[in-house]
UniProtKB/TrEMBL annotation:
It comes from Bradyrhizobium canariense. One of its GO terms (molecular function) is iron ion binding. The keyword Oxidoreductase applies. Its cofactor is Fe(2+). This is 3-hydroxyanthranilate 3,4-dioxygenase. The keyword Metal-binding applies.
Amino acid sequence: MKQLPVLELQEIAKELAETGKRVKVLWQEPGSLAFVARGREYRSEFHINGSDEVTYMIKGTMNLHYRTPEGKEEIAVIPEGSTNWMPPNTPHSPRFPPDAFALIVERQRHEGEIDKFQWFCPKCDNFLHEETFVVSDYRADPVSQAYKNFFDNEDARTCKKCGNVMPNALAEAAKTS
């Protein structure tokens, strides 16, 4: 039997803050995936995956934006020390600042399973763009790759309904860091 892991969440949060990294995978096994995430000030997409998710806020507060089955955007506020459960296939956008940290526990993806990242126009809520990934190893940080693909493509950030161009949040974040 493997040694059972006991991990210090505050130390992991401190490590992420000091290194500037966004995610540290704690374990990745066929039935379980756990990681600590540092907030991304530019997070705006809705992530869709086929796993239940449990979020525990280690430090700070998360505004968990999600879309109802009818497509309406709602927000669940998760304060420090609190937890939340989210059912599979719920479009969600965990928004919290870079000095906040969350523990996320979900199921590791099945072989060939696709994660989706969707953006909507901030002005009229029209669907803008979708990135898809097969996430076989969460350490590859698919969220960062989805953001790079989206924000590097002005056409993807341009609303076909109202003409609004979503600003390049990655470029803006780079200016302030």
